[in-house]
Automatic annotation (TrEMBL):
UniProt domain GHMP kinase C-terminal: residue ranges: 216-276
Swiss-Prot/TrEMBL catalytic activity: 4-CDP-2-C-methyl-D-erythritol + ATP = 4-CDP-2-C-methyl-D-erythritol 2-phosphate + ADP + H(+)
EC number annotated for this UniProt entry: 2.7.1.148
Transferase is among the record's keywords: yes
Residues that hold ATP according to the record: 110-120
Organism: Rhizobium oryzihabitans
Recorded family membership: Belongs to the GHMP kinase family. IspE subfamily.
Domain GHMP kinase N-terminal residues, every copy: 78-157
Domain of life, per lineage: Bacteria
The protein's enzyme class: transferase
Keyword annotations of the record: ATP-binding, Isoprene biosynthesis, Kinase, Nucleotide-binding, Transferase
Role this protein plays: Catalyzes the phosphorylation of the position 2 hydroxy group of 4-diphosphocytidyl-2C-methyl-D-erythritol.
UniProt-listed GO biological process terms: isopentenyl diphosphate biosynthetic process, methylerythritol 4-phosphate pathway; terpenoid biosynthetic process
UniProt-recorded name of the protein: 4-diphosphocytidyl-2-C-methyl-D-erythritol kinase
Length: 294
């Protein structure tokens, strides 16, 4: 989206939807240590927001409920500014100017929580800057630039339902996933992705089930998140969250990514909102967010 303020300046606004691994099977490991995955991914209305304006010099600011946390822990190496710098280098090398910008991140998603917040921000920055600068880049170059920023960034560039394989770069669109009503739940304890992969004992797990017939809900019933058992050993609150979401009537309930965020699927938007309210009351310090897939 592009808006003009009272001075006529153009602001480019881009949503950075949360990434939900509805199923995540770890099927092997590459020689360089990265794990091979098969994952069904959806994106939600809940997410961060990137805003970009022209400026005399580059700047970066953060607001939102999880903004402080990120500033404190980030040491200046944010995925947003890394995305800006990599994209600018690529554009300048093809003679495109990529002028200075002020980027603002509204950080609504918990940090290091398995729903790809940083990856979503990086991907949204790439999409927004390409629009803001009215620039062009070869799609393959953009895909490899995204992958350099993180294994989840290529799928976040798509930001619509998909199956990803490889380490996340081999992407196939899914066009018939129904709209899902979810509650996202997190105990607000950060989980390190490499740590969870390190703790995973069996690397060669069965792939995603074949989807010959049957509904996506049947498919979800037959699939897993292979990172959930090791994450739950590290953080027992994950087991508690699964229990709480199930008690609210969600099915299935599963962890996303490397955790700790879990999602529960509800029958209706009303049921999801009711569960969100009830969960907030029972665990006031935790993160609960009712949302729907896009
Ligand atoms: C768990 C997922 O979120 C599922 O979508 C992703 O696979 C993780 O993606 P990500 O957070 O973008 O991960 P990256 O920032 O690229 O990698 C962080 C670290 O996680 C480990 N890693 C990551 C992805 C992968 N397929 N295998 C791995 O072993 C590696 O140790 C890597 O150094
Ligand atoms: N814009 C950003 N938002 C969140 N984290 C960021 C950002 N930039 C850098 N980081 C760093 O990246 C790390 C991972 O954060 P992120 O929120 O993307 O994790 P995640 O949700 O577990 O990701 P994934 O699901 O892709 O594994 C954090 O340790 C954080 O300090």
């Amino acid at each position: 989206m592009r808006v003009h303020d009272i001075s006529g300046a153009t602001e480019t606004i881009e949503a950075a939807p949360a990434k939900i691994n509805l199923a995540l099977h770890v099927t092997g490991q590459r020689a360089d240590g990265y794990h091979l995955l098969e994952t069904l991914v959806a994106f939600t209305e809940a997410g961060d927001v990137i805003r970009i304006r022209d400026a005399d010099a580059d700047s970066f600011s953060i607001s939102g409920p999880f903004g402080d946390l990120l500033r404190a822990g980030d040491g200046g190496d944010n995925l947003v500014t890394r995305a800006r710098d990599l994209l600018r280098d690529a554009l300048v090398s093809t003679g495109q100017p990529a002028r200075p910008v002020a980027i603002h991140l509204e950080k609504n998603l918990p940090v290091a929580s398995g729903i790809g917040g940083g990856s979503a921000d990086a991907a949204a920055t790439l999409r927004a800057l390409l629009r803001h600068w009215d620039a062009g880049i070869d799609p393959q170059k953009l895909a490899s630039l995204a992958l350099r920023l993180g294994a989840d960034v290529p799928m976040c560039l798509e930001s619509r339902s998909l199956v990803a394989r490889g380490i996340g770069e081999d992407i196939e669109a899914v066009t018939d996933l129904p709209e899902l009503f979810l509650v996202l739940a997190n105990p607000l304890k950060a989980v390190s992705t490499p740590e969870i992969f390190r703790r995973l004992q069996t690397k060669n797990n069965p792939p995603l089930p074949e989807r010959t017939s049957g509904s996506w809900m049947d498919f979800l019933g037959q699939s897993r998140n292979d990172l959930q058992p090791p994450a739950q050993v590290l953080l027992p609150e994950i087991g508690e969250i699964v229990e709480l979401l199930s008690q609210e009537g969600a099915t299935p309930v599963r962890m996303s990514g490397s955790g700790a965020t879990c999602f529960g699927i509800f029958q209706s938007v009303e049921a999801a909102h009711k569960a969100e309210m009830s969960l907030r009351e029972s665990r006031p310090g935790w993160y609960f967010q009712a949302t729907r897939t896009i």
